[in-house]
Amino acid sequence: MRGKNATERVPADAGGIARAARILNEGGLVAVPTETVYGLAARADSAAAVGRIYAAKGRPSFNPLIVHVRGIAAAQRLAEFDATSTALAERYWPGPLTLVCPLRGDAGLAPAVTAGLPTVALRQPAHPAMAALLDAVEFPLAAPSANRSGFVSPTSADHVLATLDGRIDLVLDGGDCAQGLESTIIAVRTDGRIETLRAGPIAVPGAAPLGATLGVEAPGQTLSHYAPGKPVRLEAVAREEGEYLIGFGRTAGDCNLSDRGDLVEAASRLYACLHLGAKAPQPRIAVAAVPGEGLGLAINDRLRRAATPA
Ligand code: AMP
Ligand code: MG
User: Fold this and answer.
1) pLDDT score for 168
2) Phi and psi, residue 189, nearest 5°
3) Contacts (Cβ under 8 Å, ≥6 apart) of 235
């Protein structure tokens, strides 16, 4: 069924969700739209299914996966979900906030999901397709971004198939993702402190800034990531010879993140522009400067990683 055969593509409607649920039950891999990027889902309670995620993506085994849940009650069955976590989930779920909490001994997750860590990353997604899929199955879904490891994240079904066609069973086509940036990741410590492990669409008040604990705590947040496969020059003011220019605001390019200089629009278009740059005939990509406040923090975080050679 999976492996060498072409990947099935169906609309993310009721029929598609039912088909996806059947495949997931059997331990298969399904790409699903979420409000952030497309996720590559497998049942999180099956070592074989989770192993297929790592194999299909070529993802290093030290890089743990985010577990998608139906809500706070489901999260409490997997993690020590304390008052701080509950308050954050009540405020921001469903939505693009991932909480890293102590893993419960009886969680029943495949060990590869957490890459052997004593913590687990949890999120309740808001996208109707992912929410319907979680309602249709009886297990949580491990789901990293639906792309080969290290490449640009997918915000459309075409992007998914660009690197995973033939490697996964099904893609649910739900059109373009609304936010276009991976979730904010917050670690909730047992003493109640909260720390940002990955910048994203949600800025959580009171969270210690990014960088304080990179390395051990956020495996997988490597410097080179989201790479389009050619050199990327940042803060460009004009196109140089041989460059595909991604514009922002007054700097107009071959494609534009947002010509009105809007960061929300820029986030939603970031990966689509990088995919276009990757496919363009020019051997290099240049990107106009994007302001570093608010959502711009997360956008610049992804751009820096896209510009760092592997
Ligand atoms: P992705 O699903 O590809 O966006 O990547 C998920 C990211 O979540 C990983 O690269 C890790 O940095 C982070 N993550 C997942 N689980 C944990 C955990 N238990 N502790 C810290 N970071 C985690
Ligand atoms: Mg990813």
Assistant:
1) 98
2) -80, 160
3) 287, 288, 289
Query: At which of 149, 172, 198 does a domain end?
Result: 198
152 and 109, same structural domain?
yes
**What is the pLDDT, as a whole number, of residue 310?**
77
Half-sphere exposure of residue 123: CA atoms within 13 angstroms, side-chain side: 25
Ligand nearest to the CA of 182: 1
- From CA 258, how far away is CA 247, in angstroms rounded? 7
Query: CB within 6 Å of ligand 1 — which residues?
Result: 63-66, 100, 114, 117, 119-121, 144-145, 182, 185, 197, 217-221
Q: Look at residue 225 in the predicted model and tell me its pLDDT.
A: 82
The reply to whether 242 and 177 lie within a common domain is no
Question: What pLDDT is stored for residue 3 in this prediction?
Answer: 44
Model confidence, pTM: 0.92
Domain of residue 104 covers 8-198
Alpha carbons 50 and 120: distance in angstroms, whole number: 14
218 found inside a domain: no
Taking the centre of ligand 1 as the mean of its atom positions, its distance from the CA of residue 270, in whole angstroms, is 21
Gap between the terminal Cα atoms of the chain: 33
What's the total number of domains in the chain? 2
Residues of the chain with pLDDT under 70: 1-4, 210-221
pLDDT value of residue 216: 44
Shared domain for 236 and 186, answered yes or no, is no
Domain boundary among 198, 214, 244: 198
Tokens of 292: 């570093």
118-172 per-position pLDDT tens digit: 999 999 999 999 999 999 999 999 999 999 998 999 999 999 999 999 999 999 9
Domain CATH number, residue 57: 3.90.870.10
Considering the domain architecture, whether residues 161 and 286 belong to the same structural domain is answered as no
